[in-house]
């Protein structure tokens, strides 16, 4: 995977006049499922698609925001996939490529482009959106995009699966299951995971992966207080006014160690996360619990 990503990034940087570009991109939430789906499906297209087409997985966020996605960064770092190989939304001009008739797009984990990219709709050639493919085929209302991508690879080119790809897809499927707060893995998920585990018996135990993902999901290690608040940023709106709300979890004793004013975060600080909140020059929301 890292060889493919490095080669794709290098071609993008070197080629001022690209002929054909096929971009695989997910929603702005850039969750683990959509990111891994974009990586693996672009890799798949690169191997089975027509020659002369540059297949690129694009993360639908600016590079500066990637620091907030702790569980995603952890999995990629564990598999030795450097951040420098990633292509972020602010590093490629999709609109120019589309105007030149060179762009095709596969959407993962979403059936719609972001509002600022609506003019790119004519370039969309495929949608991998589990919400649209649920029903009789799946027991869960919204299975993961990674599951759909893996099914296509197993069906069309199973020889492309490596242990590294298996780890990426398996971790993504397990994380999606965790996020859905379901007690049991569905039969379809179990079937697919069992295929991977039988093919690659050296994969880490599921319990280990789940425990690590749970720890990293809410980890703020290496982040400042401001970055921690931005990582958890949510917006509430009554249709007219938007309010930014964020939380920082720590015990009361630790909070008292911070200088006065630490918890006042200016509205301008939220602009990197593309927040459009109208109210409050400062966001001071926090939650805490008293230590034992």
TrEMBL record:
SUPFAM superfamilies: DHH phosphoesterases
A cellular component term, taken from the record's GO annotations: cytoplasm
Entry protein name: Prune homolog 2 with BCH domain
InterPro entries: DHH_sf
Organism: Microcebus murinus
Superkingdom field: Eukaryota
């Amino acid at each position: 995977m890292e060889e493919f990503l490095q080669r794709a990034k290098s071609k993008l940087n070197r080629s001022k006049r690209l002929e054909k570009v096929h971009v695989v991109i997910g929603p702005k939430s850039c969750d683990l499922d959509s990111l891994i789906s974009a990586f693996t499906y672009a890799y798949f297209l690169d191997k089975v698609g027509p020659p002369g087409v540059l297949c690129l997985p694009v993360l639908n966020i600016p590079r500066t925001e990637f620091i907030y996605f702790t569980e995603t960064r952890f999995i990629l770092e564990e598999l030795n996939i450097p951040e420098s190989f990633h292509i972020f939304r602010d590093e490629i001009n999709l609109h120019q490529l589309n105007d030149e008739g060179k762009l095709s797009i596969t959407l993962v984990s979403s059936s719609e482009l972001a509002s600022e990219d609506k003019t790119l709709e004519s370039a969309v050639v495929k949608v991998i959106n589990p919400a649209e493919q649920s029903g009789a085929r799946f027991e869960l209302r919204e299975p993961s995009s990674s599951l759909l991508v893996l099914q296509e690879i197993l069906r069309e080119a199973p020889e492309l699966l490596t242990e590294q790809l298996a780890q990426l897809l398996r971790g993504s499927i397990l994380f999606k299951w965790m996020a859905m707060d379901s007690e049991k893995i569905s039969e379809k998920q179990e079937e697919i995971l069992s295929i991977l585990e039988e093919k690659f018996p050296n994969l880490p135990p599921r319990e280990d992966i789940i425990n690590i993902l749970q720890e990293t999901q809410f980890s703020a290690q290496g982040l400042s207080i401001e970055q921690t608040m931005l990582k958890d940023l949510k917006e509430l709106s009554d249709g007219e006014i938007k309010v930014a709300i964020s939380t920082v979890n720590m015990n009361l004793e630790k909070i008292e160690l911070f200088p006065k004013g630490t918890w006042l975060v200016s509205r301008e600080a939220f602009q990197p996360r593309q927040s459009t909140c109208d109210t409050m020059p400062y966001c001071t929301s926090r939650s805490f619990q008293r230590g034992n």
